[in-house]
Amino acid sequence: MIELENVTRRYGAKVAVDNLSLKIGEGELFAFLGPNGAGKTTTIKMLTGLLRPNSGAVRIGGVDAGVDPCQANRLTGYVPDQPFLYDKLTGREFLAFIAEMYGLEQDKTAQAIADQIENFELHAFVDHLAESYSHGMKQRLVFAAALIHRPKVLIVDEPMVGLDPRSMRLVKDLLRREAEQGATVFMSTHTLSVAEEIADRIGVFQLGKVRFLGTVQELRSQLARDDNSLEQLFLELTSHEGDAVSTAQPE
């Protein structure tokens, strides 16, 4: 569902993403990891159509995001690291606005909104103005908006920032459920314990290149560390520069 083929993105002389090739299959929850400056944000911006690569192709569900970004966006839900809402809209009005933007049929919009209110436990505040929301409330509403049109691909950037433990549990369960129901989930996060808990596969990115692709257990085997946490493995892998590691990827 997600394919990046020999993707490079530069900012002037700086190479932010260097010849990245990556395939993420239907129903996979993929965690994209890396230190600050690794190129994760640039990659997400290319996946969501906010940036175009200087070379290579980005495909969402077989649609080239550079050629037909509107169609690629219809297949995608996006949760940014900083939630943005319209302060003078209620949560319900915001969800209705997003549903209309995605072209959801009017007779389906009310049920879609009701479903997301239930999924994210928004009942207590969904009819209040967004300007009164806490960060956690905003994050939950943004998640609901990203899923309102039932996208085949969900891209989330630092989903746990600012969430209380109950909201974190809700989001983790939601991401796993979306993957189990067939959606492709691409999650960028610094919260390594969350990646270790819920991801099917991880990618470790450093200096614009892939350092590792595979499962946490495969990373343990590569580093000969049978019982280390992902945090310990990540710190060891990224503590020095090295050649990119390629592993078999699902078609």
Question: Could you please describe the fold and organization of this structure?
Answer:
The chain is globular, with a radius of gyration of 18 Å. It folds into 2 domains: 175 residues, P-loop containing nucleotide triphosphate hydrolases (Rossmann fold, 3-Layer(aba) Sandwich); 66 residues, no CATH class. Helix content is 36%, strand content 24%. Strand 1 and strand 2 form a beta hairpin. It is an alpha/beta fold. It has a 6-stranded mixed β-sheet, with helices on both faces.
Give keywords.
single chain, 251 residues, alpha/beta, Rossmann fold, 2 domains, six-stranded mixed sheet, four-stranded antiparallel sheet, 9 helices, 24% strand
> What would you give as the CATH superfamily of the largest domain?
P-loop containing nucleotide triphosphate hydrolases
Mean pLDDT: 89
Compute the CA-based radius of gyration: 18 Å
What share of the residues does DSSP label as strand, in percent?
A: 15-25%
Q: Runs with pLDDT <50, length 5+?
A: 242-251
- The run of helices and strands is EEEHEEHEHHHEHEHEEHH
| Strands, count | 10
GO molecular function: ATP binding; ATP hydrolysis activity
Protein name: Putative ABC transporter ATP-binding protein YxlF
Keywords: ATP-binding, Hydrolase, Nucleotide-binding, Transport
Domain ABC transporter: 2-232
